[in-house]
């Protein structure tokens, strides 16, 4: 059973700061990693995917992957109050096609 | 990305009644869909995998006779909560598989909030 671990938070950062969200996973053979954002009362929304070691940037978001350390992170630059949400890390579960194992999520609060 | 819809978005029902929730892939076909449940302030819990043309696969601890899943077509899966009780009140979310950047992932519907009185 694959495991995905995240700090539940809440993580509070001031507006304009960099928010750093971390995720570790148990299965060394995992090849793809996803970050979802879930606003309160809403369903998860895919915001980033990463497959190769290193950084992947998309606007204010940067995903970082280190397969040797089994660690994936999400950086949010110039954090805005609208970024306040729970961020879920996910990896393929291997149980079947397209099945994902989700972390419990980190709640981020951006303080104006 | 893919668009997945759910209907209804919110439903209130009396204890003992059945509630049907629809999940549709709007611009693509999905032979598989996933049903999740999420209680307040808790993480997503996969309930079952819906398979077009065959029986759904239920996760351990999920009662298949209580949560009936029918994958009627390549764009529609339904979840029926039978004889609903207050403890079934939750946020039910479906998802459909999609390829994002060459890897298999899921896109989620907007969810259905069920309140059983």
Give me the number of helical elements of chain A. 0
Gross morphology of chain B is globular
Gyration radius of chain B (Cα, Å) is: 14 Å
Number of helical segments of chain B?
0
Please render the helix and strand layout as text:
The complex is a heterodimer of chains A (about 110) and B (about 120).
Chain A: E1 4-6, E2 11-14, E3 19-25, E4 33-38, E5 45-50, E6 54-58, E7 61-66, E8 71-76, E9 85-92, E10 100-102, E11 106-111
Parallel strand pairs in A: 2-11
Antiparallel strand pairs in A: 1-3, 3-8, 4-5, 4-9, 6-7, 7-8, 9-10, 9-11
Chain B: E1 4-7, E2 10-13, E3 19-25, E4 32-38, E5 45-51, E6 57-58, E7 67-73, E8 76-81, E9 90-100, E10 103-108, E11 112-116
Parallel strand pairs in B: 2-11
Antiparallel strand pairs in B: 1-3, 3-8, 4-5, 4-9, 5-6, 7-8, 9-10, 9-11
Short description, anyone?
The complex is a heterodimer of chains A (112) and B (117). With 112 residues, chain A is mostly beta strands.
Structure write-up:
The complex is a heterodimer of chains A (112) and B (117). Chain A contains no helices and eleven strands. Chain A has 112 residues and is mainly β. Chain A is globular and about 40 Å long. The model of chain A has no long low-confidence stretch (mean pLDDT 92). Chain B has 117 residues and is mainly β. The N and C termini of chain B lie far apart (37 Å). The model of chain B has no long low-confidence stretch (mean pLDDT 93).
Quick tags:
heterodimer; A: 112 residues; mainly beta; 6-stranded mixed sheet; 5-stranded antiparallel sheet; 54% strand; B: 117 residues; 7-stranded mixed sheet; 0% helix
